[in-house]
Structures are given as structure tokens and as C-alpha cells.
Write a structure and sequence with these properties.
By secondary structure, the protein is mostly beta strands. The chain contains one helix and 28 strands.
Length: about 290
């Protein structure tokens, strides 16, 4: 008896749909005939009770299903209207405002990931064109010392850089670089001075030939070695010293050997002096 009374009471009147729900009107009729209320779909809302249809959220706003109000899109997102959620700004785009219907392009020298409210400067050693998702490292032979730049600069002669450099490094003594090579690119490494040459300063663009009386036996020398006594170096850029022949001598750093003076002699190669002839002997040039 009680159950029958309760059911009879609940069907004795129609109740209002609460905000966020609606009861649609039947086709060609002014009545609904609904047995329950339906949530407003995403992108729509109903603020009042007893609604027969939901209202569309305007651009720059969104609403989940069953909403009583529309919400503003936050920075880094946007909406074209009738959206359940706001769309995130794509990589390379940004939006710093609430209630936006679109995102803006990041300028060259900056980048963003998805959903950004600001564009970030490219770090030193990198660069970007407009609408960039990531910044690109400067190529080997190039550098960029500042943030937020759109290009990299070539390394000068006597310097080099590897990829992503914020500065170019000097070639060390015994090495060199020619500098800009092709297509606006500097050196990505330093070359060793070859035998018979040297460089004694940092940042050298070429190597110098060893002077007379000296030699360079190996690569990558920062100074040349002096020919020791008994040897000589007659030209520039030599890698070995020559031996003085019998009848000649030399001191260190000589570019040629000297003939022994009359009355003296040097019976072997590499002599550093000519001793005088003993009593009963003589020597003279031919």
C-alpha cells in the first residue's frame, strides 16, 4: 500500500530539470514527454532550471558536459566555440591571454612547445626561424654568443668551433686554421703544422717555415729546433739538418758548414772544430 502511494505521488507532477540539464521538446509538439533530464553536451550550458535546450558556448570559452556556465580558455589555449575543452596552442605558437580564439606565431629567434603562453629565446649557440618548435644548434664552424638570434656567425681565421658553440676557440700553438671555408662557414677543427713549420701563438691562421739553421722534425711544433754543432740547415722549412762533410765544421744554429782553415783538418763528418795539424804535417785547401 505504501509503495503504491509513493509511486502515485511521484507521478502526480512534473519536476523541473536542474541547471546543466534539459528536457527537449518533442518534434511538432510543445511538450517534452521526457522521463528524465539530459546533461548538456560539451560546449553547451544551461544556467537556469526547467530548460528545454542548452545554449552554445561562445568562442574563447568551453564547457564540459552538464555545465551551468562556460569557462574562459586560459593562456596557452584557445577555442572557436562549442568546445568541451580548449585547444592547446600548437608548437611554435603562443597565447598570453585568457579568452582567446587563436594563437600567435613565435618570432624568429624564439621557440615554444605545445600549449605555450610565451615564446622562449633560443639559447646562445643556437638559432631559429619563425614558428619554431625547437631551436637549431649552430653548425660546426659557426657560433652565436647571444640569446634570441636568427642566425649564426662564422668563426674567424685562427679559430674553430664544434656544433652548438657560443664562441669560437683559438687554435693552439702548433696548429692553425684558414677560417671561412665555403658557404659562409668557418673551420670546424684546426690543422697541425706540417714538418718544417711551426706556430707559437694561439689563434694562428698559418704556420711559419723554420728559419735557416733550424729544423722541424715532427708535426704540430710550436717552435723549431736549432741544428746542433756539426750539422747545418741551408734552407727554410726543412725537417732535418744536414751533416758537415770531412774538412768542414759548424757550430749550433748554422745555415752552412765552414771549411777548415789551412793548417787544420777534420777527418770525419759532423765536426764541430778543426784541430791543427801535428808537427811534420800540413793541410791546405785544394
Amino acid at each position: 500500500m505504501f509503495l503504491s502511494f509513493s509511486l502515485s505521488l511521484s507521478l502526480s507532477l512534473c519536476r523541473q530539470c536542474v541547471p546543466g540539464k534539459f528536457s527537449p521538446v518533442s518534434q511538432n509538439e510543445s511538450i517534452s514527454g521526457a522521463s528524465q533530464c539530459t546533461n548538456c553536451a560539451g560546449g553547451k550550458y544551461m544556467a537556469s532550471s526547467a530548460g528545454s535546450s542548452c545554449l552554445a558556448c561562445l568562442p574563447a570559452k568551453f564547457s564540459p558536459a552538464g555545465s551551468t556556465v562556460c569557462f574562459a580558455c586560459s593562456p596557452g589555449s584557445y577555442s572557436l566555440g562549442l568546445q568541451e575543452t580548449c585547444s592547446l596552442c600548437a608548437p611554435g605558437l603562443f597565447n598570453p591571454f585568457n579568452l582567446s580564439t587563436h594563437c600567435w606565431n613565435c618570432s624568429a629567434g624564439t621557440f615554444t612547445e605545445q600549449g605555450a603562453s610565451v615564446c622562449l629565446n633560443c639559447s646562445a649557440g643556437s638559432y631559429s626561424a619563425a614558428i619554431a618548435e625547437v631551436c637549431l644548434d649552430c653548425a660546426p664552424g659557426l657560433f652565436q654568443p647571444l640569446e634570441g638570434k636568427t642566425t649564426c656567425s662564422e668563426c674567424d681565421t685562427g679559430t674553430f668551433s664544434e656544433g652548438g658553440a657560443s664562441f669560437c676557440r683559438d687554435c693552439r700553438p702548433g696548429n692553425y686554421s684558414w677560417g671561412p671555408l665555403d658557404a659562409g662557414r668557418g673551420a670546424d677543427h684546426c690543422d697541425m703544422c706540417r714538418q718544417g713549420t711551426y706556430s707559437y701563438l694561439n689563434g694562428t691562421s698559418n704556420c711559419t717555415r723554420c728559419p735557416l739553421g733550424s729544423f722541424g722534425p715532427v708535426q704540430m711544433m710550436s717552435s723549431c729546433q736549432v741544428c746542433v754543432a756539426g750539422y747545418y740547415s741551408p734552407g727554410l722549412g726543412l725537417s732535418i739538418c744536414a751533416s758537415c762533410t770531412p774538412g768542414q765544421f759548424s757550430l749550433s744554429n748554422f745555415s752552412s758548414c765552414l771549411d777548415c782553415a789551412p793548417g787544420s783538418f777534420a777527418p770525419f763528418s759532423n765536426a764541430i772544430t778543426c784541430p791543427p795539424c801535428a808537427a811534420g804535417y800540413f793541410a791546405n785547401t785544394v
